[in-house]
Amino acid sequence: xxxxxxxxxxxxxxxxxxxxxxxxxxxxxxxxxxxxxxxxxxxxxxxxxxxxxxxxxxxxxxxxxxxxxxxxxxxxxxxxxxxxxxxxxxxxxxxxxxxxxxxxxxxxxxxxxxxxxxxxxxxxxxxxxxxxxxxxxxxxxxxxxxxxxxxxxxxxxxxxxxxxxxxxxxxxxxxxxxxxxxxxxxxxxxxxxxxxxxxxxxxxxxxxxxxxxxxxxxxxxxxxxxxxxxxxxxxxxxxxxxxxxxxxxxxxxxxxxxxxxxxxxxxxxxxxxxxxxxxxxxxxxxxxxxxxxxxxxxxxxxxxxxxxxxxxxxxxxxxxxxxxxxxxxxxxxxxxxxxxxxxxxxxxxxxxxxxxxxxxxxxxxxxxxxxxxxxxxxxxxxxxxxxxxx
Length: 390
Prior knowledge:
Number of helices: 13
Pfam family, one: HMG_CoA_synt_C
Oligomer: single chain
GO molecular function: hydroxymethylglutaryl-CoA synthase activity
InterPro entries: HMG_CoA_synt_C_dom, HMG_CoA_synth_N, HMG_CoA_synthase_prok, Thiolase-like
Low-confidence stretches: none
Shape: globular
CATH architecture of the largest domain: 3-Layer(aba) Sandwich
Family: Belongs to the thiolase-like superfamily. HMG-CoA synthase family.
Number of strands: 18
Largest sheet: 10 strands, mixed
Mean pLDDT: 97
Enzyme class: transferase
């Protein structure tokens, strides 16, 4: 049975800050941000958006009524969950009016969460071929103002409908994965900001890729020349390139050029959004699928997922005939074109404007947020959500 991605959608907030201007404000050479880590713009989430609304807005744009009826499992990968007990998936389930006779859960392992969700979805569909699974990867990356990680913040979500006989990509069966207990990135339950050992994390990312790549070759007999492209989890767009370069000497210059060129295309969306943790790999895939118009059906795409702490996995997908007909290119183009730039001062004010943590009630003005689904406030410790289309 072929199982894979039937639909894929994306959402990011309507605000962004220019990385050149942020660099100047931080007394940093702009090239450090735009070339050194490869970021142009950083999405800025208003107080009316959180990981739930980002995911719901991403899924809203791709699901039709038939999808909502056939979905019997919602798996929400995130490390920006809003509740230690109730899953973010349950909120999305209700906001989108998905079939109630279904499962809805949240999974967590840093940026690997959405990949774990996909693997769970494949197993579920193998047992229930008529089912569809909604996989969500949604996060808001926060490190704090004037911190070392500030330039790798971002916000957004990717939604994927996983099914049998998918229209976009068949996910191949063989994959390789690795787990090690390391402290390269973490966020204690008492902190709303992450802690990171940047150099160590970079080293481990590359090491994990090299290890799962070597094991993948042994397991499958395939090599780099069997791939049209490899997409990477991108905490910043230069990170994946560092890993790719460590294996390029295995192939000819022509293959090196193909993989490097396609890698650059795959980073375009991430470059203009920033780090979205669990969704970053799939935003990279979406960028490649939508922006490389001559990508051929039957192409094998590699997918490297890395979640600090750490879990890594390398798996692959084969593009289906006429896959471009089932993408939402126009929707995503309009999303990017409609965004509004904010000044560094505005960004700092928005960053510090957070929901109360002392039990206070708050009502938010959602009129200035163009998203269809928003956080409208907090009442008695319960976040309030609004779907404006109802």
